[in-house]
Design a protein that fits this description.
ATP-binding; nine-stranded antiparallel sheet; 1656 residues; SNF2 N-terminal domain-containing protein; hydrolase activity; 54 strands; alpha+beta
Amino acid sequence: MAGELRAAGVEGGAELGRRWMRGNAKIDHTYAEGQALSGLMRTVEKTFAAVCPGITQPLRVRAKTGKPPRGRDKSIADATRFPSFSLALPTTPPRRLPRWQRVKTQLSRRGKSLFPPSLVASPQNRSQSKPPSTADEESSDAEVDDTVTQAVSTSRNAAPDASNLPPIHDIPAIFSDLVSRVPEIKAVAEHLEGRKMRVATMCSGTESPLLALDLIRRSIVEHYGVNMEFDHVFSCEIEPFKQAYIERNFKPPLLFRDVCELGDSHATTAYGSLAPVPGDVDLLVAGTSCVDYSNLNNEKQDIDDNGESGRTFRGMMSWVKNHQPPLVILENVCSAPWDRVAQYFEKIGYSADYLRVDTKNFYIPHTRTRVYLLAVNQRHSSLPGKWKDWIGKLKRPASSTLDAFLLPSDDPRIHQAREKLVSESYNGVDRRTGRTDWGRCESRHQRGRLEEELGLKRPLTGWEEGGYCKMPDFAWNDWGVGQVERVWDLMDISLLRSAKKGVDPSYKTQVWNLSQNVDRAIGSNKVGICPCLTPSMIPYITNRGGPMVGLEALSMQGLPVDELLLTRETEDQLADLAGNAMSTTVVGACIMAALVVGRKLLKEGDDDATYESKNDVAMDVDDEDEDETMDVDRAPEKDVPVEERISGEDQLVEKPLDLASTAETRLTALLQKAQQSARLCECEGRKDITDRQLNRCVDCGSSSCVKCGGRPEHNFEAIDVNANTRLPPLAFAKELKATLPMSLSLANVSRELLDSLREETGVTIPEKRWGSWCEAVLRVAAHELRFVEPKRQEIWAATYQSPVAYLELQLNPQQPEWRLFARPEGDEPANSEIRKLLESPIGRFVCEDGLFSGRWDFALPYTTSIQITISGSEPVPSWEQKLGLQGKEFRDRMVNSRLEIDVDAKDLDHFDRDISGAYTLLDKCGTANSALHKKATDARDAHLPPLFLLLDPTRCGDPVDDSFVISISKGRYEYGETRPIICQLQSKWRQSDTDEEEHIRCQIPYKWMKASDVQLAPVAGHEAHYAVPGDQLDISVSMEACRSANALLVCRVPLLDQAGPEWPRNAWKEVDKVHERVTFKALAWLIERIRNVGGRFSDWQDAELPGAHVNCERCAPTAPNLLWTKVKKRVVAIEDTAQAGQYERDLKRRPAPFVTQLKLDKNGVGVVRIGVNVASLMHRAMSRLPTAGRKGKVSVSWRLTMDFLPAAKIKMPKFKLSSNRHDSLHAQPPSFKIPLRPEQLRSLTWMLAQESPNAPPFIEEEISEAIMEPLGWRAEGRAQRPVHIRGGVLADEVGYGKTAITLGLIDCTAKEVEKDFRKMQDMKGKIPVKATLVVVPPHLTRQWGSEVKKFAGKRFKVVELATATNINSLTIEEVQEADIVVVASNLFHSSVYLANLEALAAAGSLPLQDGRYFNARLGNVLDSLRNQVDRLRDDGANAVMDKILEGRKLGRYIIAALSYWLTPCVDEDESNFFVPTKRLKGKSYREVAEVAESGKKQPPKVEPKVKTKAKKSAVPDSIPANASVSPRTGLVMEVVIPVRKASAASSATSGTSEPEEDSDTRPKRRRVIRKVMSSDESAGSDEDKPRVKRGKKAAPAKRLTKKKAVDSEYEASSAEESGSDAGSLAESSDEDIPKKKAGKVEAKAKAKAKASSATQ
Ligand SMILES: [Zn+2]
Ligand SMILES: [Zn+2]
Ligand SMILES: [Zn+2]
């Protein structure tokens, strides 16, 4: 695919830059695919011209082979294959070199290296670095052909930062650059002016097109002053988490679920409602599913197949056909059938063309090839072709390495992601790769190790069978242990492979694809460029020691992650989003090109006609309808204007704000404290102090905790933290911030001063270099440096910045100093000299007596080169040998462990510090290639930090150019930071075991020059003011209060001309959640001093709750109802989709707890105001308090913590059992025969107190909290309600006599209870009883009865309920008379009990399994049961029966609705209760029902029967309306309710009146009731008791497993039983019988009522 360009040799071109011309070497240059021929030519010419500017003529380019890239019927590969060329360069060397080339040449002659090593790498070394591949489609897939690899050229391997374009990695800046290159876009914006462009997206996953469009819009405003607004018409996404992402971040008016439906007039939205599919769209961008096209998918499916891709594609096409959008852009993998796609478009009157693009050619260092297609609504149009040309023109290779796109390792988002990754990897260890696959690939790995002579060691992970893994200390071991054997071994093999080339990958930025096979290439072919990210990939970053996190992956796709809300996605989901995303830069370029070429196809701004009407396509949606749906979401987002969203500024007190002041702290004291609070282990981060044992290496001085340390080994010794007390880091940070001024500047710097310094040194610095360096310094001096943050590391630091500079205070205890770095101007090319120069500091302030007393040194840009002598001795095994490499060059390799460095006395004064002396190899102490040496300290430098000699590799440069340096710092550096070095050894020097003296050149990169006039001083003259609350803050909780936040902090500062981009001009602007971090960092200098408004509000502040409170819908929108649906045989809860949509939107519109607003006045005064909406927090808290049955008054309060830090671990207070040792003895219970022991009497006292009406209430509490992380503020709103619950837990030991004490309690309170009971009014849904309900484990049921007798004789009447059978024989009367009801706890779980409950409650059936659905249904059933109780009392048994019959229908309805399939589940025990014999069936049953209904003079006796038998599936149609099946037992149940002989009228009146009449004395037993029993009982007997007994003994239920059988059985029994049932009806009309039954039912009702109250 890649074209090949061959630049033939230049004779005698000696010093023309090694890359291009080395003698007559042949140089190969391979181009990336997809580059247009003309572009390729131009690039060749340009490059050549740059190298040889003097030569214009003799350049001949000749095409050798290859086919032109066209032809739709050719494969993609063909279409994008380019011809190769040979390029003949002139043989005359050029006369003049470009500036950088000359400098380079001079330096090279003197053996120095000034340029990024990648620039000056020599070709023969290139072959050692990563083999590039020609296959760039999904580079993870790339099979590398070795022969190709060898032939591939050198220049491909240059990292993006060797580019001669300015580096660029900020996504908005990228778009600004992109848009600035397309002035034609202005015409498009003007063309559309007057209306919004309408854009629709389908399956775009991350909605990259919208992000790109918005970035483009912003840039157009910036560059051309026109606003090209657009409307997002609809989105379509099928995956729920992506829907959530889209909804959260883009709020599309319509979010459809399935592309396949879009061809219709209406489609289902993500919320489940049906909405008209809108049209009149200018631009559609779609990335239809690529699941089926992906190479990884073996059975490729076609668009004509019914695979996912085919269906979605056709859905998209029918939408296009129906709505005729002028422009359509499609994106997909290269292997999709693009020619056919284009044909489809032609069929519907469009023209289409496509091309292949690679993300790395569009600003972002990410190899990702995709095909984009443009279809325009015009036949045989030339536009798609022009569009392709445009995209060619818009190409712009990445000029920043992938490091620039990664988050800094101390970014909190990295920590969060890491935690998520760790927990996800534990939960799903097998998910991605599978533990099990190790067995399959083990032999492959071993073969690889053998063939490549890698040895058997595991130097990176140290893994062992059984799941042990220990990565080096810098790495994410917590993530590492979650990986699988295959991954671990692959990591080790990869390290060993790298080590063979002399490279320690842990010190280079490489991305390894760990989901790849061991024999495939797992890295990128290009340095500094990320391999293609796929959803399933594990992208391991070698110098992080951990994976790229999801946010970074998104950032590698050009998503502005700072602007996105990515809070709820898992890391896996983020990886999925990123892996399937369109790169914004690519889709952005495609959109811009399409708009430019297709401008005339777009309607003008004042054109009202729809595209449909223009194209004569009927849109079969009536307008009215459409308008309605569009309006749904157009409700005003926030009804409160911005300036009113913060109120109460008048409550604040204004004070002056001093930004320049510093607290007087002595430097030594500050350093002391810095040391005490510094980080001793990586795991402590910025804020923590570990309580694990800490160790420090005796040799190198590094420290770590026992958990993190150990790799590298070091020479550890425990740190005695008791002897060296540690200070809390936050306390020190606070002190440091008080000590430092918030704004600094460099004073007394002038060009004259700088020039005089140069003269003083006497060295010659090239004028050009000197000039640009001086400019940088003067630029720095003109801007004030503003405080950013204190940084806790192994040593503390504090940072300041200005738009042009960066200042860091290093609190090194032995050498505290400030270092000042200038920022190169943005348009400097990545490889420019000044950029390289400015990686070094431009100056430093060495603290002597205080932070601001000392001396200023400039680092003049002059590199001194000096020859030093190194002699080595005492060889020890080399790094490679210790890694176990088996190649013969490694097996026995030794290196000297002692080095003696000699510097000529005359050269000594060039050094900042004397480097000569003896160096010892500390090969247990890590650093790159385990090559750390430490200089033995002597008297001269004992007071200074120790010196180290170590290999200091560049992150992305050629490893061969990495050199050893001498520095006081051996640590790792973040991207963008540079190690302060004293000198750098020639890059060719490597460790060896030579015993000869080596003469090595060594460079001192800059020349320190003292400038005593220069000062680093606080900036005075900011007349800033701030206002904070006084001692009091009145906060209202009224329903209107939450409309605006209470002002807490208002700050005014004259910024004049130094206002940053964060300040909106002349209008209030609110900082939203996503921009919070960035904004507050920029404001830190202003707010840091005042953000601690004080601790006045850190205690709960009561707020007055006005009147009757209703739920605030603004702050706490009503949650959607739960519905139940069946998924794979399980019932699951789903939200009512329509309500859920509304709910989500309402949630989004809730008032923010914290509101931050910024404004820059006309007169240059910046105003920040921050408010907190405590009322909203209290409203939220109130909405969550439970309300059912609560009567207590709600009270609300709030508090505000100004120095809040989320705790790393939540420390729960220890739970303590209270003792009753000090309670007083209660008198013996009145009826007790056996006295209680004293300790029991004490418990009795306590229990009585708990039962007392005055017992202290339990406080129910809800807190709603909000955290403003950048400020460390936390606001909480609290709602409380007292709930009186009389009771407690008596937790005495076994055998202590808890039963006796409880009986004592019953005894002592019996009189009171009796009294209350007599006074008891009728209770709704319940029948009052005086008994104490005792729920016991089943085996203790009987014991309770005997205990009662033992202690209280016959004083108490006890009812024991061990099984459901006991309930069947129980009367309501018995329960009402009882003093104690003992019930076995398992009764409530019993199927029989629940079946009876279902039947009686008549509210449908209960589900079989416990869980949310069961609880929800149980709630309904219990509610209904209460109604039944009332009905029984008020309307009599007939009404109850009617209800039961009705309930059955309900049950069947529910069952049918759920299509609920049941498994037969009648166990032996249950069958004892439910005996299948004869049942009341069909006609006879109906008759009974009719009788009951009509309420004749001779009402039938109520005789409920539960009959059980058939599997539920048998039920539906064959069963009469009045039969139902218990899902629990799978039995068909029938109930007959005979009513006593009394007339219907009297029965009814007695039902209602009796309890009322008797209520003042004692409720009388109602006799009429019924019983739930099996029908065979009723058939067999007319007498109550015998019936019950028979029931118990009856035969087990028949279990029917087949539907057919059930049906027939059912019919048979129904026929058989009809007669006898009728008989039983007549028989049962006996007075005695119903009595009993009534009792039973009521008892049950009672028990249930209790159960229900218990469940609440
Ligand atoms: Zn640690
Ligand atoms: Zn060490
Ligand atoms: Zn509210």
